[in-house]
Each structure stands twice: as structure tokens, then as C-alpha cells.
Design brief:
Layout: H1 3-24, H2 27-31, E1 34-42, E2 45-49, H3 55-63, E3 69-80, E4 84-94, E5 100-113, E6 116-124
Parallel strand pairs: 1-6
Antiparallel strand pairs: 1-2, 3-4, 4-5, 5-6
Length: 127
């Protein structure tokens, strides 16, 4: 396995751990998959979370009424280097009855900082 393959695998592992934590509503597990400060560009504005403390509550406020869980539809590597991986991410948010709240696309940047792979920033079309 090449270094690039290893870095992409590390980024995908971060994304899968993030989704597992999100769906379990495990704030510590989610925080472990993010670098802070963490950045999100959406609707023409940059949101910055300096610490994990308010991250999860902020997600719940924008996830949509009835949000139950999220599924990655695709996680495609656009570019990978020694210290970061860019992922084209498509996902669906669902209600408990299995009906979709919405389908969204984002660009996630997973970075290795101080030896740890985690999400540093993303640009999202989701609310």
C-alpha cells in the first residue's frame, strides 16, 4: 500500500468514525474526528467552532426536524497528499421511518496535524 493509499484510508476511517459518532449522538466520538478550530463554509458564511463544546448542539439545530440518522452515499477522494486528503462527500439525512430529509454534497478536508488525522474543514451545500 502506498503512502497515498494509507492517507486516503486514514481519511475514510475518520469519516466513518464521524458518522458512527453522529448517529450514536456521541459527542466525544464526534469531537475525536474533528480538529479544532473546525471550519464550515455554507450559505456564503464561514462558521468556526473553536472547541467541541457547542459543535453537536449546533448540528442538531440545522439537521432538520425529525432527523434520526445520516448515511454516506459516496466518499470519493479528489486529491491526497502527505498531510491532507480532499473528499467529495454525498450524504442523505433520514427520519426514523426511513424517509429522506434531504440529499447533500460537501467537500471535506481531512488533515494530519500533530500526527492525528481528523476533519479540519468542509464546504457544504447542506443547511
Amino acid at each position: 500500500m502506498t503512502e497515498t493509499d494509507q492517507n486516503v484510508a486514514a481519511a475514510l476511517a475518520v469519516m466513518n468514525a464521524h458518522l458512527a459518532g453522529l448517529n450514536a449522538r456521541d459527542e466525544a466520538a464526534i469531537a475525536a474526528t474533528l480538529h479544532f478550530p473546525h471550519y464550515r463554509l455554507s450559505g456564503g458564511r464561514m462558521k468556526v467552532w473553536e472547541t467541541p463544546d457547542d459543535y453537536f448542539g449546533d448540528f442538531l439545530a440545522r439537521a432538520g426536524d425529525g432527523w434520526d440518522h445520516t448515511v454516506w452515499d459516496t466518499l470519493d477522494c479528489l486529491a491526497a497528499g502527505p498531510e491532507k486528503v480532499h473528499l467529495d462527500v454525498r450524504f442523505t439525512r433520514y427520519r426514523a421511518d426511513g424517509s429522506a430529509l434531504g440529499h447533500f454534497r460537501s467537500l471535506w478536508v481531512i488533515a494530519r496535524l500533530n500526527g492525528k488525522w481528523a476533519a479540519q474543514l468542509r464546504s457544504s451545500f447542506a443547511a
